[in-house]
Amino acid sequence: MEARQLWQTTLGKLQVQLPKPVYDTWMSATTGISYEDGVLVVGVQSAYAKDWLENRMYSVIQRAVSEIAGRTSVIRFIVSRNHRTEETIE
User: Fold this and answer.
1) Which residues, other chains included, contact 62 with Cβ-Cβ below 8 Å and sequence gap of 6+?
2) Tell me: the pLDDT tens digits for 12-68?
3) Interaxial angle between packed helices 3-17 and 58-69, expressed in degrees from 0 to 180 and rounded to the nearest 10
4) Is residue 45 classed as helix, strand or coil in its secondary structure?
5) Least confident window among 5-14, 49-58, 78-87
6) How much is the pTM?
7) What is the three-class DSSP state of 43?
8) Residue 81 has what pLDDT?
9) Side by side, which strands form the sheet with 74-79?
10) What CA–CA distance (Å, rounded) separates 39 from 74?
């Protein structure tokens, strides 16, 4: 499954699970960048968003992605100023 499709499907699942303010603030501006060997790279807008998602939402997101992908997956958040492209910022 392609990263963008996997992430969009995950966002749909999370949108119905999470309170609207949480989803709108932390999830809506993210994008799937790559998915390879069970690792989904997700672009976020800021280091603060990256930290918040890693520390407060990781298990919920990881569970949703794993269910959709059909395998245990790892989520890696990166700050990507222009995350609408396939470029990743390391």
Assistant:
1) 73, 74, 75
2) 999 999 999 999 999 999 999 999 999 999 999 999 999 999 999 999 999 999 999
3) 120
4) coil
5) 78-87
6) 0.86
7) strand
8) 72
9) 31-36, 39-44, 74-79
10) 5
